[in-house]
Structures are given as structure tokens and as C-alpha cells.
Amino acid sequence: MSEQQPVVFVVDDDRAIREATRSLLASVGLQVQTFGTAQEFLRAKRPDAPACLVLDVRLPGLSGLDLQRELASAGSPIPIVFVTGYPDELVRAKALGSGALCFLTKPFKEGDLLDGLKSALTAESDD
């Protein structure tokens, strides 16, 4: 396991949500990288450090569920906290059934996101 500081990747096409989430996470001392699309996230060089992903369900191009599936099939099962502005129980069940640790509806409580990330980073550091 790496001794580097954990990184939280935020993938959301809404710039305001990305920035608000980045600001919240930075305020509690987390290192954050943000992306507007799943494709941007996949192209980026990611540090060799414990990490988790705050992932919007609905994204242009590759959806959040598509990205989750692609990461799993590539052998990169990064812990995921899903967020969505469009709650759908079928999508929620699919995301959680495929290994997501948390599924939050926007607007979510800051504490709920931080709790989900704590679980995700704990799961990642146990690997």
C-alpha cells in the first residue's frame, strides 16, 4: 500500500457541483481531483495512492454506471460513492449491486458525503 495521501476523484458534469464538492473535501484536508466527464477521468494519470471516486450517474458520453463497469472489467475496482439529481431505485440497486459503497441524491447533506467517503477510503486502504 502507498503511503501517499488519499485522493478523491470527483466526476460530475455540473461545474458548480464539482467546485462545491472540491471545496468541501479540501476543507477537511482531502486531496481532490475533478473531472467533467468519465472520458476525462479515464485519460488522466492517477497517482499511486489510496483513492475513491465521487461519481455522477448521468454524464455526457460514458455514464457513471458505464464507468463503474469499465473500471471493474479493467481490474481497477476503485470504491465509488454515486451522486445523482435523478433518483431512480433501479439505477440505485444496479450501482450498489455492482459494488458502489453509497448512493446519494442531490442535494445531499455534506455529512452524508463525508461519511460515504470515509467508508470508501477505509475500504481502499484495507485492500
Can you put this structure into words, describing what you see?
The chain has helices at 15-27, 38-43, 64-73, 89-97, 110-126; strands at 7-11, 31-35, 51-56, 80-84, 102-105. A five-stranded parallel β-sheet has the order 2-1-3-4-5, with helices on both faces. It is an alpha/beta fold and 127 residues long. The model has no long low-confidence stretch (mean pLDDT 92). It has one domain: Rossmann fold (3-Layer(aba) Sandwich), CATH 3.40.50. It contains five helices and five strands, in the order E-H-E-H-E-H-E-H-E-H. The longest helix has 17 residues, at 110-126.
Strand order, largest beta sheet: 2-1-3-4-5
Uncertain runs are none
Give the overall form. Answer: globular
Q: What is the CATH homology-level superfamily?
A: Response regulator
Can I get a quick summary?
The protein is α/β, with parallel strands linked by helices and 127 residues long. The chain contains five helices and five strands.
Write the layout of secondary structure elements.
Layout lengths: L6 E5 L3 H13 L3 E5 L2 H6 L7 E6 L7 H10 L6 E5 L4 H9 L4 E4 L4 H17 L1
Parallel strand pairs: 1-2, 1-3, 3-4, 4-5
Descriptors for this entry?
127 residues; alpha/beta; Rossmann fold; 5-stranded parallel β-sheet; 5 helices; 5 strands
